[in-house]
Structure formats: C-alpha cells, structure tokens
Amino acid sequence: MAHEIEGNNAFFGGNVPAWHGLGLVIPDDVVTTERAIVLAGLDWEVLKLPFTPMVEIGGEDVVLDTPERSYLTVRSTDLKVLGTVGERYKVFNNIDAFGFGDALVESSAAKWHTAGSLYGGSKTWMLMKLPMDTCIMGEESERHELYICFQNSHDGSSAITAFVTPVRVVCQNTLSFALSGTTRKFSIRHTGNAASYVAQAQEALGVGFNIMAQLEREGAAMMQASMSDNQFTGLLDNLLPLPSEDDYEVASSFKKASTRVTKRRDLMHDYFTGSPNLENVRGTAWAALQAVSEVNDHRAEQRKNVFDINETRFERLIEGAPIVQQTYDYIIDQVVA
User: What is the domain extent for residue 259?
Assistant: First the structure.
C-alpha cells in the first residue's frame, strides 16, 4: 500500500491508538527527540548515492551518459530507494530534521506525542504537544490542545516543515486555519544547514504559540454570534455554490458535480444542525466553523482505498484546509464583524 503508515514504524502517546491500529502505543509522551525517533523506528540514516542509468545493448550493460547528474536517496537499514533528487539536494536525517524540536521542549515543557513514517519511509513526521490547553468561554467541551507538527521528506518532494495547530479534543477535529496575523508554518529547504535555522524557527513558531490566546478571543466572539439555518445556507452558497449546467458540456459531468457538491453541503448542514459534538454551541457562528471543519477533516470524500483515508487527512492537515480558512474569513467578516 503506497499511502499508509509504514508497518509499525510509529509511536502514539497518551494511550491513544494509531489511525490504523498500527504502531507502538505508550502511556506517556516522550521528552527527547532522540528517544522519540527510536520509539518510532526512525533511527536510520539516508544515503545519497549517484544514479547512473544503465541499459542492455547487444547483450551487454551500457552506462548512459546523462547531461544532468541525479542521485538516489536510500535508507541505510534495508537499502530501500526513497526517491530521486538533484545534485544540490542535502540529506537531512530524521535526527537532524527534528533535532531542533529539543530546544522547544526545553523552553516550553512540550513533549513528543506521536511520530512515524509514511509512504514507505519517504516522508516522516513528529508531533509535539505544548502545555497550552484552553477552553473557549470556559466550556470544557470546547477544550483545545496546541501542537507543533514537524514533517520531513527524503524524496525531494517537500522541505522540512513545522506548523502550529490546535486540536478540538471532543472530536479530535483539527482547526488548521490561519488565525489573522499568526505565523503558523515554517519551512527549511533541503539545500542548507538545518542547525542554522533553529533561531528562526523558534522566533517564527514562537509567534504561533500566541494562537491559543487569539483562538480563545475569536472563538468566544463566534460563540456569542448567533447563526440561523438560513445564514448557514448563505455561508454554503458562498463557499460551496451549486454548479451551473452552463459550465458543463456533458450532462453526465454536470450531474456528477451537482451530486457531489449537494452531498457535501447536506452533510455540513446536518452537522451544523444535529451533531452531538456541537450540542452546547448549536445555532452559533462557532458551530458553523466546527461543522465545516469536522466534515472536511473527517468526512470528506476520499479515494476508494481504505488505507488512503487517514493519510489524506494527514496531508490536508499539513497543507491546510482552504474551505476551513474561507469559512473562518467569512464568519469574521460577515457575521462577527
């Protein structure tokens, strides 16, 4: 399976099981990066080896002379090829990519909560929990935890990325929208020295630590702003407008698009009006944001392969959720303001 947690190469703290029941589940979170990497099975190195294409001509192997040199990234433990990269690509082993998280642990009493590898080892992640829980308007059911997620790739597909994200505990719903003026993401390209970025990362993500105060303030404003069913329908009209038949040359394509959009709108509306997770905030702008986020995070249509579902969710978390961001912006501009 191409898009799944790699075997048991993962650990999950707090006695919370893995997405697929894989990985090592431990009772407590982990303090040091080195220990977390061992528990997650990420204590291996990546080798960068020259790649020379070879073909068979006349029964003999002939090495081709290519204009640009390319390299393979190979895992040291099993010599598995993880990707093909260029000459300027710099390997950041897991201990190097995630190592600057130790400085954040020491300064903020944070701990590693989960870690593991995806896509056969070509991508790895570590999730750090910060001691900054907050309850919106004192509601225990609206408790949010703050995390920093670190992601690295060994196939040249992405930079080392760190981002701050709050999680709504009651349904493990990830609010991956960018609060106004808050730095949420920091990246390091695979062409420099990761150690030199430590101070910059601390400064950038340090701004993100203020996300809880802002979330509490703006979340309270949304909870105090009422939103009717008609207003929520207006929000959906703005974010997920029904397709126009004029935009489709083939009637069957229009029908499929219309069905897909209608199903998603209906699901969001059902969550807004009937989700038990929103019982205490029903009829508010906060419930509207949570309904859109919950459907996007957990119920969005996925590819057929069941092993893809949670990995796609993880990708949406890393890349952000445009519709959740648009919902947040709409509510701030049109409802709260």
Answer: 225-336
